[in-house]
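Researcher: Go.
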Amino acid sequence: MFNDTGDDNRNTSSIDNIKEVGVSKVPEINTNIQFLTIIGEVEGHTLSSSDKKTTKYEHIIPMLIASMQDPKIKGILIILNTIGGDVEAGLALAEMINSTDKPKVSLVLGGGHSIGVPLATASDYSFIVPTATMTVHPIRTTGLVIGVPQTFRYFEKMQERIIKFILRTSKIDKNILRTLMYSTDELANDVGTILIGKEAVDYGLIDEVGGFSQALNKLESLINEEYK
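Model: Structure:
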């Protein structure tokens, strides 16, 4: 019986790739744009449970470094559909994206919640589709907390880091941002605010309502301005 080992090897490679980064290997496209996807839960220093879709920050950082070093890459498009996750890892990724000096555009699809907010605002220009949601709320933790006053001060400082980042990477007003974060009207047994599509733009958190084509066109115009 004939066994095509070449196909078997390719299938095995695809399966390994799915296990590693959550997507099958896409065909190589001759483009000057680096596409990054941040989906599911942002995984940090500890592993998330095996039944969760995650984005590992140690995968995204090398891709950003490679994009900076590759002269063929002229711009970066970040696509987000995330529930949030590890605050330190998410903020590290946001800072890395923001400090990349090549043109970059972000697009929120589905959701950009929690630490996904600074990840969305980290780019030069941001889009959100009409049906996407963003949850703005203070950071929180679960489980046993030891040394409550010290832990509270740590969370307070971490919250200020996030607020300052969002303020310098978006057009939202500081007082409005704090009001949205600590609102008690929308989330049951929690504080925060859910913004849907245009609401995020109206508050100055996101630049424009639009989809993939608009985000891609905007990035191409930024690239043309940068390299004209």
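Model: Confidence is low (pLDDT under 50) at residues 1-5, 142-146.
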